[in-house]
Amino acid sequence: MKLLIRNIARNITQADLTEMFEKFGTVQSCTLVMDKETGESKGFGFAELPKIGDAKAAIKLLNGKEFSGSKLRVKKADD
After folding, report:
1. CATH of the domain at 24
2. Is the pTM higher than 0.85?
3. 48 is a domain residue
4. Which of 18, 22, 38, 62 shows a CA-CA span of 20 to 30 A to 3?
5. Tens digits of per-residue pLDDT, 22-54?
């Protein structure tokens, strides 16, 4: 299941994001969207967890959680 993560603090790295989701199970992919001109984070990204149960647990526990000063918004990504 592909998840959309919004409101990511600008100081969070892709490695930080991956590590956060690995706590819930295998992470197939994790991408922090970067601005092509500045090279800085745009504040959102995607994580893909192959097991639906792991993805649902991540949504339940991370949506609304404060991480590095920002309240994350995590939901199933529209395909």
Report:
1. 3.30.70.330
2. yes
3. yes
4. 38
5. 999 999 999 999 999 999 999 999 999 999 999
